[in-house]
Specification:
Blueprint (H helix, E strand, L loop, with lengths): L5 H10 L1 H6 L2 E5 L4 E5 L14 H21 L7 E10 L6 E10 L3 E9 L5 E11 L1
Antiparallel strand pairs: 1-2, 2-4, 3-6, 4-5, 5-6
Amino acid sequence: MDQVDAQATEALHQLIPFAGHLGIEVIVNTPEQVRARLPWQDRLCTAGGIFHGGALMALADTVGAMCAMANIETRSPGSGTATVESKTNFLRPGKSANATAGALHTGKRFVVVETEIRDDDGKLVAKVTQTQAVL
């Protein structure tokens, strides 16, 4: 299992309190790649102990925003971001959730991010493409 970056996780929870409420843990936070995981919690599940789709979408939205911010900060410090579009494909139920996000496009006004959520066995649970506005 990958090592949690405690400092980056605390910074995320301060910036986005909802991420702290969910318990999202940051592994890597660079412009090239953001990796985080959502530890399994019964309160985030649907029937059968599998993650609720909304919890997985919240994880993807969070790492997508982190990826956009990491890319925006390199050229426009102090800017922000907001999700303007998100498309999720759920491919299998998941009892573990490890997200990896990377930028597909970094423009002046929009950043497009692709996120994969995989289970602990490396199987693809969901694929998300989102567009983040540069604020």
